[in-house]
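Working notes for the structural subgroup meeting. M.R. asked for a predicted model of this chain before we commit to crystallization trials. I am recording the input and output together here so anyone reviewing the notebook later can reproduce the run.

Input as submitted:
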Amino acid sequence: MKKVLSLIMIIALVMSVFAGCGGSSDEAKEVVIYQNKVEIHDQLSAFAAKYTEETGIKVTVKTSGGDSPYAENLKAEFQSDRQPDIFVIEGMGGYNTWETKLASFSGDEEWLGKTSLQFAVDGKVYGFPVAVEAWGMAYNKAILEKAGVDPATLTSQEAYRAAFEKIDGMKEELGLKSVVAMAAGPDMRWVTGLHNFNGYLSAGLEYGDTTVLDKLNSGEADVDRLTEYADWVELLFQYADEAVLLTGNYDAQVGQFATQEAAFVHQGNWIDPWLLSNGVDFEMGYAPHASVYGEHNAIFIGAPSFYVLNNESANTQEAKDFLNYMAMNEAGHDYMVNEAKMIPAFTHVTLKPDAPLSADVTNWVAKADGAYTWLQNDMPDGFGMGTIAPLYESFAKGDIDKAEFINQLKSKIEEIK
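Returned structure, recorded in token form:
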């Protein structure tokens, strides 16, 4: 009998150990997101904490972006034991880099029926759209009004040149340090080599037209178009504050606009959270970039970045559940619109952004032909920030002139062959 009791006690002890291990495993479940928007780190972290409270699944947000190179840091994460469950890619360039690490969605996720902006390749969905984003030439309405410049007339390089010259002559009266807050230094290569260069790729073309991009990806440069584009870059540099242009970081560039020391800023609606957190409340809006010759009545609009799944994750289902919750639950809608100040990519979201630039983007979205395509993320990986962005720095410093800037852009494109 004693032997039987001893055996029962041993079995009970073993079972309790296994039960304890099982409980610890459940508690250890954690979804790690590695994302690239410093502007929404706090907001996304707060939303993740609420999700954890409701579901018991811990969600941790890690962020690298802005002045910190996301792509390089993400590669370091994957080379360590800190691989995220969810991370971010931007278009085909990101897909080509991370293809071997990506898991596709199953296709029956609820959110897929509520958007047309998912990232898909060969019929498989790999990306959950983070938001609809846009950029143009953001302007301070009051300053333009005082200067007698109607933003509706800013549709060509000629119109911008006249407006910039006029405002520049009134800088003291208007309290300005520069006409446009523009940055081309080492910390801001994404502004020049990606966003500004996108004007060469798509400005003036119908939405979805990839003609110029296709030529670039095959190593062919459109020299006439590059020449027109270089005139636009020169104009922005000419009327920028030299310190911000050459050495300014994100805070310096956006801050000059925020303190009303610049009439324009070359940035997108992703700066809304920064502006609001710093108490900026003046009226603003977007005018088109006149990146090449001709008339422009559109800004650059798209779903540029996507949450993707790590195919080596042990928490794939939990990661999918979190993203689905963000898209389908009112708490997710509140986070996207009211907290992160983003424009959701999902048709069933009824909330509208009240942040100034995002609100203006919705006006452009509603216009017929009010959008040019985001194509900068479909160039070869590293081409924008690594290959051509340094050329902007050299041009801004005066180390190369405009003719050499054009010639070197042409050469870098031809090296893609």
